[in-house]
């Protein structure tokens, strides 16, 4: 029977794992506390966090959350990255930190209850950000509307050009008559 503190940790971790869009398992062995704090700060900007939890508690919380396939990776020092909002920004921050620190290693992760490898986590980090994708989608939606508006304005614009040319012609003719 776990103690009340461990039961609270299991409940908290279960809730975080159940609500997570992306879970990344990392080995933080050799990482300084200051570096871990910098990583936490960077991950918060993208709506994620990283926490260190005992492997046994993590295993129980994962089972409670309905996540399977983590058991082989729950060995040794483990930090769990949890993205609840922007998975691309989160994985970019985590991958960049792992690349620059050369101490933190990504073991794998869980995306939509499917285990993904470290290479797949890296592949997620190469995707465009959510804002860029939204901008591209907006551009794609606006493009046909803008072209339709140009086509509809074409005849009116042509009439305006003809009227302006005639007005210029009349204006030039009255000057020549004087």
Describe this structure in words.
By secondary structure, the chain is an alpha+beta fold. The chain has helices at residues 4-19, 33-45, 55-65, 87-101, 118-125, 130-177, and strands spanning 22-27, 48-52, 79-83, 105-111, 114-117. The protein has six helices and five strands. A five-stranded antiparallel sheet has the order 2-3-1-4-5. A hairpin with a 2-residue loop joins strand 4 (105-111) and strand 5 (114-117). The longest helix has 48 residues, at 130-177. It is elongated and about 100 Å long.
Keywords summarizing the entry:
178 residues
Oligomeric state as shown: single chain
Q: Which runs of at least 5 residues are low in confidence (pLDDT < 50)?
A: none
Termini distance?
109 Å
User: Mind describing the biggest β-sheet?
Assistant: 5 strands, antiparallel
The tally of helices reads 6
The main sheet orders its strands as: 2-3-1-4-5
Structural class: alpha+beta
Share of β-strand residues? 15-25%
- Mean pLDDT across the residues is 85
- Following the backbone from N to C, one meets helices and strands in this order, namely HEHEHEHEEHH
What global shape is seen? elongated
Q: How many β strands by DSSP?
A: 5
Radius of gyration: 29 Å
Helix content: 55-70%
